[in-house]
């Protein structure tokens, strides 16, 4: 089923259509920019909270007796990261493109503990930070970063792109445009008639 878009014939209809297409594009781009700005602000706040929370939690675990640390883990665990009282998983050494969460953890703990970061492959790729407490006990910070909501960001872009494509398609089919003239040549244009021969 093919849907043909036809250019309006009256000037008022043409201006209204141009206004509506521009409005769709503007709203789509504005929504994408506003949502992305809010996402950046929330991410900055989250990284700041991560840095403060990790430094406080590790300090608490370091000062607790070894036999009481397990009871504190449910209080210290968060939705995107948790603490393990072991050496964690082997994983793979973290490359140069480290996540921003790893930098925040390094800023919070790097001055007091020797940190080792490793990428953990799997269905949900994440990373772990390994360190050793003052009594020699290993601690692992298992971090599972939240993914960027690309579908929501793409929705505004798709709306803007759809409006732009529809507008270009209608403009190409507008009477008097080069493409419209080229498409109409040989189909609906009448052939020029020869002048009648003179008689007499």
Number of helices: 5
Major beta sheet, specifics?
5 strands, antiparallel
| Percent of residues in beta strands | 5-15%
DSSP strand count = 5
Distance between the termini: 59 Å
Helix content: 40-55%
Radius of gyration, rounded? Answer: 32 Å
Look at the structure and give the mean pLDDT. Answer: 78
Sheet/helix structural class: alpha+beta
Instruction: Give start-end ranges of low-pLDDT stretches.
Output: 177-190
Strand order of the largest sheet: 1-5-4-3-2
Order of helices and strands: HHEEHEEEHH
Task: Please tell me what the overall shape is.
Answer: elongated
Describe the structure.
With 200 residues, this protein is of the alpha+beta class. It is 50% helix and 12% strand. The chain is built from five helices and five strands; from the N terminus they run H-H-E-E-H-E-E-E-H-H. Strands 1-5-4-3-2 form a five-stranded antiparallel beta sheet, with helices on one face. Helix 1 packs parallel to helix 3 and helix 1 packs antiparallel against helix 4 (150-172). 11% of the residues are buried.
Descriptors for this entry?
200 residues; alpha+beta; 5 strands
Task: Give me a quick take on this structure.
This protein is an alpha+beta fold and 200 residues long.
Strand and helix map with partners:
Blueprint: H1 11-63, H2 69-76, E1 81-84, E2 92-93, H3 100-109, E3 116-120, E4 126-132, E5 138-143, H4 150-172, H5 178-184
Antiparallel strand pairs: 1-5, 2-3, 3-4, 4-5
Helix pairs in contact: 1-3, 1-4
């Amino acid at each position: 089923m093919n849907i043909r878009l036809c250019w309006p014939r009256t000037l008022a209809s043409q201006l209204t259509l141009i206004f509506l297409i521009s409005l769709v594009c503007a709203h789509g781009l504005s929504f994408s920019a506003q949502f992305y700005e809010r996402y950046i602000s929330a991410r900055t706040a989250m990284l700041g909270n991560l840095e403060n929370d990790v430094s406080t939690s590790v300090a608490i675990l370091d000062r607790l007796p070894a036999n009481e640390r397990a009871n504190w883990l449910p209080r210290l665990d968060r939705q995107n990261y948790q603490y393990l009282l072991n050496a964690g998983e082997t994983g793979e050494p973290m490359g140069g493109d480290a996540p921003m969460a790893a930098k925040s953890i390094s800023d919070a703990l790097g001055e007091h503990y020797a940190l080792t970061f490793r990428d953990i492959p799997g269905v949900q790729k994440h990373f772990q930070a390994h360190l050793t407490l003052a009594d020699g006990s290993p601690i692992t910070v298992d971090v599972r970063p939240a993914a960027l909501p690309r579908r929501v960001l793409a929705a505004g872009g798709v709306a803007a792109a759809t409006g732009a494509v529809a507008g270009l398609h209608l403009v190409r089919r507008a009477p008097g445009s080069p493409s419209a003239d080229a498409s109409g040549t040989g189909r609906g244009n009448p052939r020029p008639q020869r002048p009648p021969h003179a008689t007499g």
